[in-house]
């Protein structure tokens, strides 16, 4: 499934209405699925001296950069303490 390993986010359904269209007439434009920006990454964790392959969103990468790889992966349950 297309889910980020860190943030647990998945895809969203977006609509196609503008407020002007809503006010004047009924003209359905359908829905569009918006996917995450998922990347396959091979991350080295020096604390356990191992590489880990994960599918991670760009937001998850920013979280990992901010908090560190070991702490973030431990919190997400991808590695054991």
Topology:
Elements: E1 12-14, H1 19-24, E2 32-34, E3 38-45, E4 50-57, H2 58-67, H3 69-76
Antiparallel strand pairs: 1-2, 3-4
Helix pairs in contact: 2-3
In short:
With 81 residues, the protein is α+β, with helices and mostly antiparallel strands. The protein has 3 helices and 4 strands; from the N terminus they run βαβββαα.
- Uncertain runs are none
Q: What are the secondary-structure elements, in order, as H or E?
A: EHEEEHH
Rg result:
19 Å
Give the fraction of residues assigned to helices. 25-40%
Strand content: 25-35%
Q: Which second-level CATH architecture applies?
A: Roll
Q: Which class best fits the helix and strand makeup? A: alpha+beta
Write down the domain tally: 1
And the CATH topology? Ribosomal Protein L24e, Chain: T
Number of strands: 4
First-to-last CA distance? 26 Å
**Outline:** rod-shaped
Please outline the major beta sheet: 2 strands, antiparallel
SS summary, helix count:
3
Task: For the structure shown, list the relevant keywords.
single chain; 3 helices; 81 residues; Ribosomal_bL28/bL31-like_sf; ribosomal protein; alpha+beta; 4 strands; Ribosomal Protein L24e, Chain: T
Question: Please, could you describe this protein's structure?
Answer:
With 81 residues, this protein is α+β, with helices and mostly antiparallel strands. It has one domain (12-76): Ribosomal Protein L24e, Chain: T. It is 30% helix and 27% strand. The chain is built from 3 helices and 4 strands. It has helices at residues 19-24, 58-67, 69-76; strands at residues 12-14, 32-34, 38-45, 50-57. The strands form 2 sheets. A two-stranded antiparallel sheet has the order 1-2. Strands 3-4 form a two-stranded antiparallel ribbon. A hairpin with a 4-residue loop joins strand 3 (38-45) and strand 4.
